[in-house]
């Protein structure tokens, strides 16, 4: 008897199944990539829209606290100073990179009227304390335990920074941290410090 043809038929069916599975997997992978691309495009478009809404507008009102939970004050009460408001968290790698730059800015420009406020968004202040003990901050640290300030400023990335002029108007918004952009930020800070209302 010839048993070779059923074996060949079984192998052919198995090969077809594998081919179909590979094709389906490739289609699913392609669809996932396409969906992720569309979602990220929407997020970046929304980020641009938010930035456009806040830029050249009065700084949103919100109350900050100290890390210990004591009242710090309202961001709008800082009129008269140029404010660099930086939202950060201990779990954010770009925040680690940004702190040396913020310390430099503080040392360079604090006597000219620049006030840097790092607004921590960690759920546990102990996490912020560990971060600060490790990386250090020569500038003011505040907290936003209710996340209301982050909501009012439409924070969607870490870190998110807002340069606010002496009249309380948001003049520049920066999301993330890239060392190649520090010169641009420094120039904007210098321009804002030169302007007297």
TrEMBL record:
Keywords: Membrane, Transmembrane, Transmembrane helix. SUPFAM superfamilies: Thioredoxin-like. One of its GO terms (molecular function) is oxidoreductase activity. The keyword Membrane applies. InterPro entries: Redoxin, Thioredoxin-like_sf, Thioredoxin_domain, Thioredoxin_ResA/DsbE_sf. It holds the Pfam family Redoxin. It comes from the Bacteria. Gene3D superfamilies: Glutaredoxin. The chain crosses the membrane at residues 31-51. Coiled coil: none annotated. PROSITE patterns: THIOREDOXIN_2. Residues 53-194 form the Thioredoxin domain. This is Peroxiredoxin. It comes from Nitrosomonas marina.
């Amino acid at each position: 008897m010839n048993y070779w043809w059923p074996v060949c038929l079984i192998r052919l069916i198995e090969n077809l199944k594998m081919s179909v599975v590979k094709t389906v997997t490739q289609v699913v992978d392609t669809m996932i990539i396409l969906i992720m691309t569309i979602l990220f495009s929407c997020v970046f478009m929304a980020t641009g829209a938010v930035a456009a809404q806040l830029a050249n507008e009065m700084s949103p009102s919100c109350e900050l606290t100290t890390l210990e939970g004591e009242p710090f004050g309202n961001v709008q009460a800082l009129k008269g100073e140029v404010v660099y408001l930086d939202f950060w968290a201990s779990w954010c790698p770009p925040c680690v990179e940004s702190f040396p730059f913020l310390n430099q800015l503080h040392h360079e420009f604090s006597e000219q009227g620049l006030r840097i406020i790092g607004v921590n968004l960690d759920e546990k202040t102990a996490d912020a304390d560990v971060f600060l003990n490790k990386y250090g901050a020569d500038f003011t640290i505040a907290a936003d335990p209710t996340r209301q300030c982050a909501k009012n400023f439409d924070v969607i990335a870490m870190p998110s920074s807002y340069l606010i002029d002496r009249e309380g108007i948001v003049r520049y918004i920066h999301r993330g941290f890239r060392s190649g952009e520090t010169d641009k930020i420094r120039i904007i800070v210098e321009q804002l410090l030169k302007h007297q209302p």
